[in-house]
């Protein structure tokens, strides 16, 4: 038990040396680390509570996705049945309780209508499951019900798109190293370190940025528009900055061009008024469409609509053929810039709300690091002194083990890319305390065995052997608690659990295996006849 | 060199003999803790009740009353203020606006910031948290679930590893530790947030660690002294492991003490919870869980029976050889 072959010594020391080397980048300045190859950048990341920054948890409403999907389905069905030959006339369309139902005017055409609709309801997935069920009720009413698998798929793909859009928007803001992750079915976690004021970020994320150009319905009766009624084929939309004073306007339902056909959007200034505007450029198809519509509607106003609100409704003075246009509204430089970013990154397929937000100023973060570091150093010194006073030479061995343990924990965290948070520092300090527990167990056992009259070598051998079992058992149970924290915990609990679990694994190794190596070496070279412990 | 020994050699305290007193005292304290928790309630942080928490740092010492009246003038709901760490830092809690979601919460923060900056030049918001009611409900659920699973998981582990009495006594002792910690938070009205859940889980982990060491020694002595009376055997085991119990508690207290004094105000509640937990956990290891084994009727093994205990016997054989290697 106390003799180690050279091979075993190397085998024991190797992981420790690797661990310590991996801890080194955490202490180097940024410049030096950047020059290292990526595989050697084993650095501990600082959590937001230490580096300062913002954590946002965004939630998408699944109902919203389902509703939009149903609306899309309605559009598709209308278009499909209109295209049918002979045309299938329908009426009484209603979308209630998450179902879409409509009546086929000519009962003889019901079967043909169902035939036409079926292909639309097939899922894109490979499972062959339908996204919608189509039923005929009362011989002439067709009911289209979304299947739960279909809704799940829709939410999933909406969330994927939303995550991408958010990533693009945050990248455009030029912040460093943001973390954007999907969480659960309908949530996205956004973490941006070093961000002082997340207001701009939140404003940006809130914009769905659905841009549409529609013609203004000039035939509408202003009195009726004010009451929210619009002629057939038109709709009333809010227009907060309407120069006429009425905060509403009637526009044609049909979309001239939409934001999906944009190639670029930038913030700029209006040449005459010098007010901030957003300059947009359409892609080829969008530009052609826009040119065509503006040519046909010279001297009529059109509305620029963002997220269902009219920003402005300028007159088409001449055909706009170049494929670029200017969006004016009541912008400041900042809001114009935000809209430009939002337009460039595409529109969010679903509304997101912030359900949790945590922001830590960089000052507090720096204070916490300083305090945590100071507390750790004092804890190490106090524990080390206490161990030395209690166990002499063996106490020193334990202290060396603890020092190595601290470095190895940092190294392992670096390898795993784990994040050090404030509770993580607490986990660190606690690990220092519990790491020596293993040594205390061994040394107390050696003391006991000496009292029972065993010889030096035998007592040490026995102490390690007997205590090892206890240490193993105690740490397994401790790891159970740590594992549960990691699996279930959120935020601070997780940060704490990571350090705790790594600490449990490394401390058993350093406290048992490594100190045994040191003790064995001393016994072999010095051959002491008695030990003070 | 004379080495420090906190517990003298051959200490022999009759822990088992006073177990009825210890149980009575423990019961009383636990009932008080539960009563305090039920009566006063916990000062739940925004993590668990939802709402808005702002930590404002002032350039010089400030009276909370002045801050309170500034915020009251904004009409953003009932605020609760607390000095935090030092007299320059104030924690402000506000309810979340009922309507308007995130945008509205944002507006409240901005409104408060403007009013405060006008009233107290140089003030900064060093951190703020917004947690919606929905998320806070989930955080409570996972928090409670985590603690319960940890306690049950550990009790089951020690049941499989040893006799059922060990599982039960450990379970009782840990439940006691958790209840005492809750009582402590009810009495002090320190804020109970997500960090504290981590602290409670750590207390559970530590306490079990402590009990495992003693249980392990009891098992070892049961094999060694097959004919010894159970009371004497448990006393012997607790006394034999007492130096270690005390040493470890003291080292951890030293480490936590450093954290409490120098670790900054954010971690103070967390550290206080842990220190209390270490004391309570150590107490319950020594006075509650081991003596409880007698009440539960743990019997010494007659010769030869050890073989019959499948899992426990296997575990024993496995322990010393495999156990040391992590």
From TrEMBL, chain A:
Gene3D superfamilies: 3.30.1360.200, 3.30.70.3400, Multidrug efflux transporter AcrB transmembrane domain
GO CC annotations on file: plasma membrane
Keyword Protein transport: yes
Localisation per UniProt entry: Cell membrane
TM stretches of this protein: 371-389, 396-416, 422-442, 471-490, 496-519
Keywords noted in UniProt: Cell inner membrane, Cell membrane, Membrane, Protein transport, Translocation, Transmembrane, Transmembrane helix, Transport
Domain (SecDF P1 head subdomain): residue spans on this chain: 236-350
GO molecular function annotations of the record: protein-transporting ATPase activity
UniProt xrefs under InterPro entries: Acrflvin-R (IPR001036), SecD (IPR005791), SecD/SecF_arch_bac (IPR022813), SecD/SecF_CS (IPR022646), SecD_1st (IPR048631), SecD_SecF_C (IPR048634), SecD_SecF_C_bact (IPR055344), SecDF_P1_head (IPR054384)
GO BP term (any one): intracellular protein transmembrane transport
Bilayer topology: Multi-pass membrane protein
Span of domain Protein export membrane protein SecD/SecF C-terminal: 351-521
Residue intervals of the Protein translocase subunit SecDF P1 domain: 159-217
Subunit structure, interactors included: Forms a complex with SecF. Part of the essential Sec protein translocation apparatus which comprises SecA, SecYEG and auxiliary proteins SecDF-YajC and YidC.
Similarity field: Belongs to the SecD/SecF family. SecD subfamily.
Functional note: Part of the Sec protein translocase complex. Interacts with the SecYEG preprotein conducting channel. SecDF uses the proton motive force (PMF) to complete protein translocation after the ATP-dependent function of SecA.
NCBIfam families: 2A0604s01, secD
HAMAP family with a match to the protein in the record: SecD_B
Protein name (record): Protein translocase subunit SecD
UniProtKB/TrEMBL annotation, chain B:
Cited Pfam families: Sec_GG, SecD_SecF_C
Claim: Repeat is one of the keywords in the record: no
The keyword Lyase belongs to this UniProt entry's keyword annotation: no
Gene3D superfamilies: Multidrug efflux transporter AcrB transmembrane domain
Domain Protein export membrane protein SecD/SecF C-terminal: 120-297
Subcellular location: Cell membrane
Topological relation to the membrane, as annotated: Multi-pass membrane protein
Transmembrane segment boundaries: 21-42, 139-160, 167-188, 246-267, 273-298
Domain of life: Bacteria
HAMAP family cross-referenced by the UniProt entry: SecF_B
Function of the protein: Part of the Sec protein translocase complex. Interacts with the SecYEG preprotein conducting channel. SecDF uses the proton motive force (PMF) to complete protein translocation after the ATP-dependent function of SecA.
Assembly and oligomerization: Forms a complex with SecD. Part of the essential Sec protein translocation apparatus which comprises SecA, SecYEG and auxiliary proteins SecDF-YajC and YidC.
Entry-linked PANTHER family: PROTEIN TRANSLOCASE SUBUNIT SECF, PROTEIN-EXPORT MEMBRANE PROTEIN SEC
Protein name, entry field: Protein-export membrane protein SecF
Lineage, top ranks: Bacteria, Pseudomonadati, Pseudomonadota, Alphaproteobacteria, Sphingomonadales
């Amino acid at each position: 038990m106390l003799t180690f072959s050279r091979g075993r010594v190397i085998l024991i020391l190797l992981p420790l040396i690797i661990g310590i080397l991996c801890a080194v980048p955490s202490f180097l300045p940024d410049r030096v680390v950047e020059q290292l190859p990526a595989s050697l950048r084993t650095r501990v990341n600082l959590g937001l509570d230490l580096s300062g920054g913002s954590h946002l948890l965004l939630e998408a409403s699944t109902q919203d996705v389902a509703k939009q999907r149903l609306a899309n389905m309605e559009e598709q069905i209308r278009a499909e049945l209109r295209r049918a030959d002979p045309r299938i006339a329908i009426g009484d369309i209603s979308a209630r309780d998450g179902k879409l139902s409509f009546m086929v005017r000519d009962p003889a055409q019901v079967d043909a209508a169902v035939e036409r609709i079926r292909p639309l309801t097939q899922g894109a997935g490979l499972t062959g499951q339908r996204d919608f069920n189509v039923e005929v009720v009362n011989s002439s009413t067709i009911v289209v019900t979304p299947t739960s698998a279909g809704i799940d798929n829709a939410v999933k793909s909406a969330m994927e798109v939303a995550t991408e859009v958010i990533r693009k928007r945050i990248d455009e803001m030029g912040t460093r190293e943001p973390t954007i992750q999907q969480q659960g079915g309908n949530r996205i976690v956004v973490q941006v370190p070093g961000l002082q004021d997340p207001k701009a970020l939140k404003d940006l994320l809130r914009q769905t940025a659905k841009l549409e150009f529609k013609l203004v319905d000039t035939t509408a009766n202003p009195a009726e528009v004010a009451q929210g009624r619009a002629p057939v084929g038109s709709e009333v939309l809010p227009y907060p900055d309407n120069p006429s004073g009425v905060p509403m306007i009637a526009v044609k339902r049909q979309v001239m061009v939409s934001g999906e056909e944009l190639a670029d959007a930038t913030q700029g200034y209006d040449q005459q008024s010098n007010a901030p505007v957003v300059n947009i450029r359409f892609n080829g198809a969008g530009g052609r469409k826009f040119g065509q519509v503006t040519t046909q509607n010279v001297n009529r106003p059109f509305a620029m609509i963002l997220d269902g609100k009219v920003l402005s409704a300028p007159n088409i003075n001449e055909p706009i053929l170049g494929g670029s246009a200017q969006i004016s509204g009541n912008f400041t430089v900042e809001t114009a810039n935000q809209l430009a970013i939002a337009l460039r990154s595409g529109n969010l397929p679903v509304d997101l709300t912030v359900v949790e937000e945590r922001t830590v100023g960089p000052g507090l973060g720096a204070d916490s690091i300083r305090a945590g570091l100071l507390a750790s150093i004092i804890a190490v010194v106090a524990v080390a002194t206490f161990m030395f006073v209690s166990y002499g030479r063996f106490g020193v061995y334990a202290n060396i083990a603890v020092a190595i343990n601290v470095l190895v924990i940092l190294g392992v965290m670096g390898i795993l890319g784990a994040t050090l948070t404030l509770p993580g520092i607490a986990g660190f300090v606690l690990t220092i305390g519990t790491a020596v527990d293993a040594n205390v167990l061994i040394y107390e056992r050696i003391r006991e065995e000496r009292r029972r009259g065993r010889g030096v070598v035998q007592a040490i051998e026995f102490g390690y052997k007997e205590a090892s079992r206890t240490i193993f058992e105690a740490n397994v149970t401790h790891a159970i608690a740590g594992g549960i924290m990691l699996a279930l915990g959120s935020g601070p609990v997780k940060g704490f659990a990571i350090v705790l679990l790594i600490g449990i694994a490394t401390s058993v190794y350093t406290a048992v295996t490594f100190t045994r190596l040191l003790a064995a070496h001393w016994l072999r070279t010095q051959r002491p006849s008695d030990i003070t412990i | 060199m004379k080495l420090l020994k906190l517990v003298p050699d051959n200490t022999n305290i009759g822990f088992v003999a006073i177990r009825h007193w210890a149980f009575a005292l423990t019961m009383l304290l636990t009932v008080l803790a539960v009563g305090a928790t039920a009566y006063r309630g916990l000062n739940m942080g925004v993590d668990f009740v939802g709402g808005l928490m702002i930590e404002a740092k002032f350039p010089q010492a400030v009276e909370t009353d002045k801050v309170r009246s500034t915020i009251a003038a904004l009409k953003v709901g009932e605020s609760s203020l607390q000095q935090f760490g030092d007299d320059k830092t104030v924690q402000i809690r506000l309810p979340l606006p009922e309507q308007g979601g995130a945008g509205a919460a944002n507006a409240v923060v901005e409104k408060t910031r403007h009013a405060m900056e006008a009233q107290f030049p140089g003030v900064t918001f060093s951190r703020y948290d917004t947690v919606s009611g929905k998320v806070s409900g989930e955080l409570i659920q996972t928090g409670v679930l985590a603690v319960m699973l940890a306690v049950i998981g550990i009790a089951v582990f020690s049941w499989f590893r040893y006799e059922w009495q060990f599982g039960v006594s450990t379970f009782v002792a840990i439940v006691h530790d958790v209840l005492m910690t809750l009582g402590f938070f009810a009495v002090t009205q320190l804020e109970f947030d997500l960090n504290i859940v981590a602290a409670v889980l750590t207390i559970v982990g530590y306490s079990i660690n402590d009990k495992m060491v003693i249980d392990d020694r009891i098992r070892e002595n049961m094999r060694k002294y097959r004919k010894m009376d159970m009371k004497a055997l448990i006393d012997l085991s607790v006394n034999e492991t007492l130096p270690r119990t005390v040493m470890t508690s003291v080292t951890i207290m030293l480490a936590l003490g450093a954290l409490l004094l120098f670790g900054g105000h954010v971690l103070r509640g967390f550290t206080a919870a842990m220190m209390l937990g270490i004391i309570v956990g150590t107490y319950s290891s020594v006075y509650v869980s081991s003596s409880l084994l007698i009440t539960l009727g743990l019997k010494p093994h007659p010769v030869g029976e050890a073989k019959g205990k499948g899992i426990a016997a296997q575990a024993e054989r496995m322990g010393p050889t495999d156990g040391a290697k992590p």
